[in-house]
Amino acid sequence: MTREEGEERPSEGEEYPLPPELSFDWKEAHDDIINEIRWHLKNTGAEKIVIGLSGGVDSSLSLYLAVKSVGLENVVAMFLPEAGVTPDYDEEDAKAVASLLGVKLIVKEITPLIEAFSQAISELRANSLALANVKARIRMILLYAEANLIGRAQVLGTSDKSELLLGYTTKYGDSGADFMPIGDLYKSQVRYMASKVGLPKRVWLKPPSPQLIKGKSAQSELGLPYEVLDRLLYYRVDQRYPEEKIAKILSLPVEVVNRYSMMIVKSDHKRKAPPIGKIGGATINMDWRMPIE
Using an 8 Å Cβ cutoff, are 59 and 53 in contact? Predict the structure, then answer.
C-alpha cells in the first residue's frame, strides 16, 4: 500500500489544532516527561531504551522524547511489519523519523512468527481478534528480547491516555511495557506536541491504526474520531461530568456517551497489575508496596 507524497515537515509556526479544553503547557509537559524517563531508568538500574516504532504519531513522539532523555546512542528503535498488512507508508515514515532523530532502526518482519502461531493453533486463522492480539504480543516479545540482548535496557510503551482509558490496547502486547512516557497525554495533545517539536506533518496528521487487521483504522473500530473522543474523555475523567452534561456539550446522544463511559469501566483490568487473592499477612499491592525510592 502506498500514498501520495505529503509535506515532510510543517511550515514554521504550523501546529496541530488542539481543542481548547485540552490546552496545556507543552514545553513544561515535554520537560517533565524527559525527566520522568531519566528518573525511571535511574531507579531501575537501566541505561538504554528499546521502543517499537510504527511510523505513527505516538511512537514517533515517544522516540523523540527517549532520545532527548538518554541520547540517541542509548536508544534502539524497532519497526516490526507484517507482510500484506503493514502499509508501505508506515515503513517510510518510521525510517524518516528514525533518520531525522539519528536513531538506529531495526526492521524485523513478524510474518513468519505469525505463520508459526497459526500452524500451532489452527483456530487462530478463523478468529481475527485472537490473531490480532497474538500479533501485538509477538511484537512485544521481540522488543523485550532486544532489551535483554543489549542489556540494562527498558522497553518504552507508546500508548497515549485516550487509548489507555478506552482499553484500546492489547493486554501484554502494546500495553506490556516498563514505562509509558505519553500515557498522560490525550491523542490530540500528542499530535500537538509532535507538531511543536518538528516531527513530520504527515506523521502527526496520519489517521491512527494499530495495523493488526488489514484496512482497519482506529476510528472504524472506536466509532468516533479522536477529536471528539478526547473531549468526551476529558469531561468524563478529568472533569467528572455526568454523561448527560457531556452529551449536551458535545451534541451527542447520551447513549453514545454512556457507551464510552462503560468502555473505561470494563477496561480497568488492562490498567492494573493482576489482582492477588488475599490469604493473610501483608498482601502485595494491597497492604504492602515497596517504596521506589
Answer: yes
